[in-house]
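Support case: flavin-adenine dinucleotide complex. Customer-provided input:
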Amino acid sequence: MTDLQHSLIAQLGDSCVSIDAGNLEAHAGDWSDAPRHRPSILLTPRTPADVAHALGVLTKLRQKVVVQGGLTGLAGGATPQPGEVAMSLAKLNAIEDFDRIGGTITVQAGLALEQLQQHVEAEGWFFPLDLGARGSCQIGGNAATNAGGNRVVRFGVMRDLILGMEVALADGTVLTMMNKVTKNTTGIDLKQLFIGSEGILGVITRLVLKLEPKPTVSNTALCALGSFEAATRLLKELRRRLPALSSFELMWDDFMSAAMRTGGLKAPFATRSPVYVLVETLGASEESERRALEEVLAFALENDIVDDVIVAQSIEHARQLWAYRETVGELLSHLKPHAAFDVGLPMIETDRFVTAMKEILSARFPQQTHLFFGHLGDGNLHLLSGPYADAAAMHEVERIVYEGVQAAGGCISAEHGIGVVKQEFLHLSRSSAETELMRKLKGLLDPCGILNDSRVIREQGLHDSGAGSASAPH
Ligand code: FAD
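Agent response - structure generated as follows:
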């Protein structure tokens, strides 16, 4: 047994330190196509204090560690680099407190999103973050990536749903910021540093989350439209007249066709249209909300904004309409090795960008599939392109898309993060002054560079590049 294993077992106990080949293989990578590596050791701490103690040991021994939530990330951030130890938060999944009066819940970071949703819904409350990976992704991972998903147009991103947080720093210090109120102006809101920083500044161990009263009524409609421009007009109309609007998911025709093929789904309309939009409302009044939705859609039909509409007649029917959009998980697997993009674009640039990219990519890579879809209300466009057997071709696609995003004034990641797969393109969205400040923050909070090293930014000058171990603090 190595000194490292010995020290970790002394802190965490035998059952939380594994070198079993099956366990290591199960933690060798996330959902991205970043090269997989088995970690040297798998740690599964049971308590927030265990996380802090383990980090203290790892810093002392200058051992690099990768933090792992549900491993559904699409940026390679949780994929181990050679020689790294992996720390999985899977056992840290308790619900610690549920304020049923104020509508807040205190959970440990390893709780799966879907478990949280179901737990609060059983008691009349609602946690609005929702994404296709809900069954596996963890609340801590959602916070670390500042996840978005399907309901941002109404409820905001993960950052907007977090009231408080506890973080274990690389040296084992525990930063407790378990605020439970919406308004708090007592100095710098430090938790914001950790939200969306993809685990490079600290390990999130506990969170206080804001809940909404559970909606009792949901309406879903699928619309066929003649153009992207028509979709922007529909969105404006829905926003103006429908406060219950909770999702506005756009799918271009090629995405829809691929979803039907891959998911074995029937065509929703008799004829094909260039663009489809999935609309959802969440509220409390069955009759008035359904009537309001139908009125806006009738207006949209009369005014040639929408070509055709299906309004779901039951929960099962709504599920069938969502199935086109939810096929994305199967498409991700089907098109591997793929380039998966989650760019942010000003709405006014989106149509031009999509048209240009379709033209360039289909001319340059005619054998590959290029699918466009997105959360239009949030300016978040997805492009799924693959399969690419050749890494150089994949790299070329990334360069074409990210340079196009920069030219359109967008950002290279709107929800999945930078991780390792977008790192070399970060300069297209962030100035050197911004990146330098990120490096300084990293150096301050993790001076030995043990935590999620070489993700997001390269920590130039902070440590050597030796696999697995980090140098002493400067
Ligand atoms: P992981 O993949 O394990 O980790 C992600 C990053 O966070 C890594 O850098 C990791 O080191 C870090 N991390 C994890 N836990 C912690 C912690 N406790 N403390 C500090 N750092 C931590 N994302 C969206 O935003 N919107 C979507 O609509 C969406 N849809 C998806 C659909 C599918 C089918 C799939 C596979 C993925 C989708 N994703 C989406 C991406 C992914 O689910 C999110 O990024 C999710 O938030 C990752 O959570 P996780 O627990 O799986 O994190």
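Residues 3-88 form a domain with the Uridine Diphospho-n-acetylenolpyruvylglucosamine Reductase; domain 2 fold (CATH 3.30.43.10).

Case will auto-close in a few days if no follow-up is received.
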